[in-house]
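DM from R.C. (forwarded with permission)

"hey, sorry to bug you on a friday — could you get me a structure for this? deadline for the figure draft is monday and I only need the backbone to look sensible"
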Amino acid sequence: MKSKLLSRTLMAATVAGLMGLSFMAGSAQSAGPETVAKLNQTVDLLTKAQAVLGASGTNRQGYAHVEKAKADVASALKEIDKAVKANGG
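My reply, with the result:
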């Protein structure tokens, strides 16, 4: 029960984070240097989230959710890196 709640919480946090990050990455295409700094902060936060997901122990039932969340965070990091490079960061 506890790991099911944990996996759902992690998945909800990941989805919410990815939605916010996709908005930030989209608005960064025409933004100034302060946006690059914000994107770098986002990369730091996502790296911390990736570490938390990596440290979370799950049972077999919640394993797929955690692995999906890890893949989503890795994908978001790649997209943000592209946005930073596109803005000269």
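R.C.: lifesaver. The mean pLDDT is 77.
me: no worries. The helical segments are 2-27, 33-55, 60-86.
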